[in-house]
Design brief:
single chain, alpha+beta, ten-stranded antiparallel sheet, 37% helix
């Protein structure tokens, strides 16, 4: 082997050949440089697509997470639209439909409450409270509950709506006494108490009339209370008209109906008197709507003629527990 030579196996001819050592070092240097350049270019490419220099598996998970975030954002936007439409239905339900038919509003916490600690949310229990997945899951369940409650409310209203004809005759809309048989002695509102002179709320209307004046039901309903007291309302009747309405007839001399009796508008109830806490003979008449006192004056036509009124009222056979004939009897 000559000086400055090196023996190298030629892979093509499978022979050992002599080669100038300088040429060999040049080729080796070039190979190293080319490899370094390729490594550098590869590094630049990887760094450009992965500036945080994270593992490929982490990059894949991040991309999947970003995809799901985008989907959750789209779903959240759709829920915004559905919630706005559902809120309109709820307001219309509470303020119009349920109000018209004398039904109480549905509290918001009943419509939409969800319990994050419920076992059904075990899959998201470990998520942070600010997690978008947690928020979307709870919000979706809340909307589903609100929709279910609203559907049930509409079912109830549908049942009530079928009885609108009954509602027209159930609302206490006629005067409980025949026109001309009384004069209005005390209206609804604040007045001076006739016993001690103090200012006090008067929860009904007082019709001054002779003892024994016939009293009639102001609307269809059911007798839910017949009371006999020595003080307060004295002999009184409470009638439930449905649709949120009730009426009370107080200070009567004789009651001619019983608990549970079904009434039609204009049915005879008994006679006026001065029983209980009364300064003189009169009928104290109250109207309740949703368990609150309302002004009876707004429900009746006091200008109705006696003839028209007579055509609306009836005096059926009185129900007297002791079998005596009904008649005026100051209680």
């Amino acid at each position: 082997m000559g000086k400055g030579k090196i023996q190298i196996l030629n892979p093509e001819t499978l022979r050992v050949e002599e080669k100038d050592i300088r040429d060999f070092h040049v080729e080796k240097t070039v190979a190293i440089l080319v490899t370094a350049v390729l490594l550098f270019v590869g590094f630049i490419w990887i760094w450009g697509s992965n500036p945080d220099l994270v593992l490929p598996k982490t990059m894949i998970l991040r991309r999947r997470s970003a995809t799901w975030d985008s989907r959750l954002e789209v779903l959240s936007g759709r829920m915004d639209k559905y919630e706005a439409e559902l809120s309109m239905l709820e307001v219309r339900d509470d303020k119009i439909y349920r109000s018209v038919y004398g039904m109480n509003e549905i509290p918001f916490d009943i419509r939409s409450s969800v319990n994050p600690s419920s076992p059904r949310y075990a899959a998201i229990a470990d998520l942070d409270k600010d997690s978008r997945l947690r928020a979307v899951t709870l919000r979706m369940d809340s909307l589903m509950k609100r929709a279910a409650v609203q559907s049930k409310s509409f079912d109830e209203i549908e049942v009530i709506a079928r009885t609108t004809g009954e509602m027209a005759t159930s609302i206490p809309s006629i005067c409980p006494l025949t026109p001309g048989s009384f004069h209005l002695s005390s209206p609804f509102g604040t007045r001076s108490d006739p016993f001690n002179g103090t200012s006090k709320r008067h929860t009904g209307m007082d019709f001054s009339c002779p003892i024994g004046t016939p009293i009639y039901a102001s609307g269809d309903g059911v007798v839910v209370k017949v009371a006999h007291e020595f003080y307060g309302y004295g002999n009184s009747i409470m009638v439930d008209h449905g649709f949120g309405y009730r009426t009370r007839y107080a200070h009567m001399s004789k009651i001619c109906v019983r608990n549970g009796q079904v009434l039609r508008r204009g049915d005879f109830l008994g006679y006026s008197g001065r029983s209980g806490r009364a300064t003189g003979p009169h009928l104290h008449y109250e109207v309740f709507y949703r368990n609150d006192y309302v002004n009876p004056y707004h429900f009746m036509d006091l200008e109705l003629s006696e003839q028209d009124y007579a055509a609306m009222v009836r005096m059926p056979e009185e129900i007297i527990e002791d079998g005596e004939e009904a008649g005026p009897n100051d209680g």
